[in-house]
Amino acid sequence: MTARSLQLFRMTTPIIETERLGKRYGRTTALTDCTLRIPAGRVVGLVGPNGAGKSTLLGLTCGLIAPSAGSIAVLGNRPGAGAAQLARVGFVAQDAPVYSGLSVADHLRLGARLNPRWDMRLAQGRVERLGLDPAQKAGRLSGGQRAQLALTVAAAKRAELLVLDEPVASLDPLARTAFLRDLREFVAELGVSVVLSSHLLGDLERVCDHLVVLAASRVQLAGDVSDLLATHYRFAAPRDLPPGADVIHADDSGREPVAIVRSAAPLPGAEHADLEDLGLAYMTRALISPEARRSPEGRHLPEAER
Ligand SMILES: Nc1ncnc2c1ncn2[C@@H]1O[C@H](COP(=O)(O)OP(=O)(O)OP(=O)(O)O)[C@@H](O)[C@H]1O
User: Fold this and answer.
1) Which atom of ligand 1 is nearest to the CA of 56?
2) What residue owns the CA closest to ligand 1's atom 30?
3) Separation of 23 CA from ligand 1 center, angstroms?
């Protein structure tokens, strides 16, 4: 394959493509009937309540666990299929795993030894820019610095896809902001695709251009953020909703009644929903309504609305 056709292949091959993917652990269903097609070049936010199946989907993506049903292709191949495929995907597990007894510089040396496409210039440049002391033991770094080191090691692998499982969970708001800004910058610089899970919808809005909402082990919503925001509205008066409105979730019990409505056409009197509204609406809908949970409509935008 020529360099040009390889580039074209990468641009047109979905980063993740699943068909009725499922995973069971004994009697526990972690993921059911998951059908997704995530285009290349996206920064994907994966959200869902505890136990929704986020880590399971990320584990399947990296080939750390095998499906119980259906299929999954990552960058056009079976996840974890040999050393070449493993090198294309960089994974940072929850809690920014680093070796506490090794120094920052040791992490880079180890990375160079283990990864055929290791980019030492990139790694050293990031360490310098972040102000990390190469001689410092990783165990002595702050939570934010450890997260940055883990991200540096994953990025310097020069993987095509980075999979980050709750990378900002243990960080304070300042460290979180710095981490996400930095992520956005180097994603633009390296042209890498990213999938990151988080409980913090507000944070994802800053960095993601594609959203997947998981709840009750199923995909409730998936699509490009710009399409989702353009087709969802927030009504402050749920009782006055137009007849036939496609209500995702309405709550008029509290002091701030709200309804989130899906519509391809503009809705007079309503403002566009933000990503936080959307995530919460689809998650709540799935958790309180078994019917909605099973409905395929809840999972994807109709083709015409994309
Ligand atoms: N190794 C395992 N053995 C048995 N059950 C498991 C295992 N891993 C996950 N599960 C179960 O599968 C379901 C999905 O778990 P998963 O960790 O994927 O959810 P999650 O969305 O990542 O949750 P959290 O936000 O709490 O990290 C849960 O019910 C969990 O208890």
Assistant:
1) 18
2) 51
3) 10
Please tell me the distance from the alpha carbon of residue 107 to that of residue 264, in angstroms, as a whole number. Answer: 49
Residue 129 alpha carbon to ligand 1 centre in Å: 36
**Backbone angles phi and psi of 24, in degrees to 5:** -120, 140
Atom from ligand 1 closest to the CA of residue 199: 25
Q: Is 30 in the pocket of ligand 1 (CB under 6 A)?
A: yes
The pLDDT tens digits for 21-68 are 999 999 999 999 999 999 988 999 999 999 999 999 999 999 999 999
Q: Which of 38, 34, 81, 47 is nearest to 62 (CA)?
A: 81
- CA 243 / ligand 1 centre spacing (Å): 40
Q: CB of 70 within 8 A of CB of 22?
A: yes
214-243 pLDDT, tens per residue?
999 999 999 999 999 999 999 887 777 777
Nearest-CA neighbor of 157 among 195, 110, 119?
Answer: 119
Residue-wise pLDDT tens digits, 15-27: 999 999 999 999 9
Helix residue spans in the chain (DSSP H): 3-12, 54-62, 82-88, 104-114, 120-129, 143-156, 173-190, 201-207, 225-230, 275-288, 290-294
For residue 57, give the ligand 1 atom closest to its CA.
18
* Burial category of 235 from C-beta neighbours within 10 Å (exposed 0-12, middle 13-18, buried 19 and up): buried
Q: Please check whether residue 151 is in contact with residue 164, taking contact to mean a CB–CB distance below 8 angstroms.
A: yes
Q: Are 231 and 303 in contact (CB under 8 A)?
A: no
Any atom of ligand 1 within 6 Å of the Cβ of 48: yes
Q: Is 232 in the pocket of ligand 1 (CB under 6 A)?
A: no
